[in-house]
């Protein structure tokens, strides 16, 4: 099943009976692909896990990795206003699990 999750529509139809349309949360679910890569001993899935992690719909290397000074709050502080709590959680969990499962196959973004 996991092999089909991020695969092409025809593979999803064959494995699951439906293509599911456009899938989201690729970055957060890259960890599932990493798990499948280990279970199935698949180099292709190892590569796809890292591709999904880097190019999914979460955080990527092209984002403005910096904070901005906010002075409109009770205690002025620095904040990355583009950061999402849920995306951060998915990113962190996916990074930890991809490194643990397929860290030996890590690729450049």
Could you explain how this protein is built, in words?
This protein is mainly alpha-helical and 109 residues long. 53% of the residues lie in helices and 6% in strands. It has 5 helices and 2 strands. The chain has helices spanning 2-5, 9-16, 26-40, 43-55, 85-102, and strands at residues 68-70, 77-79. A two-stranded antiparallel sheet has the order 1-2. Strand 1 (68-70) and strand 2 (77-79) form a beta hairpin. The protein is elongated, with a radius of gyration of 17 Å. The model has no long low-confidence stretch (mean pLDDT 87).
Order of helices and strands: HHHHEEH
Give a count of the beta strands, DSSP E runs of length 2 or more.
Answer: 2
Give the percentage of residues in beta strands. 5-15%
Oligomer: single chain
Q: Would you summarize the structure shown here?
A:
By secondary structure, this protein is mainly alpha-helical. 53% of the residues lie in helices and 6% in strands. The protein has 5 helices and 2 strands, in the order ααααββα.
Fold topology:
Elements: H1 2-5, H2 9-16, H3 26-40, H4 43-55, E1 68-70, E2 77-79, H5 85-102
Question: Key features?
Answer:
single chain, 109 residues, mainly alpha, two-stranded antiparallel ribbon, 5 helices, 2 strands
């Amino acid at each position: 099943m996991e092999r089909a999750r991020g695969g092409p529509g025809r593979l999803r139809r064959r494995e699951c009976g439906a293509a599911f349309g456009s899938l989201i949360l690729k970055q957060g679910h890259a960890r599932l692909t990493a798990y499948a890569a280990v279970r199935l001993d698949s180099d292709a899935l190892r590569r796809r896990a890292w591709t999904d992690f880097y190019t999914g719909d979460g955080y990527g290397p092209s984002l403005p990795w910096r904070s901005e000074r906010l002075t409109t709050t009770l205690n002025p502080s620095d904040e990355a206003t583009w950061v999402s709590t849920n995306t951060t959680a998915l990113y962190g969990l996916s990074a930890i699990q991809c490194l643990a499962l397929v860290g030996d196959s890590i690729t450049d973004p």
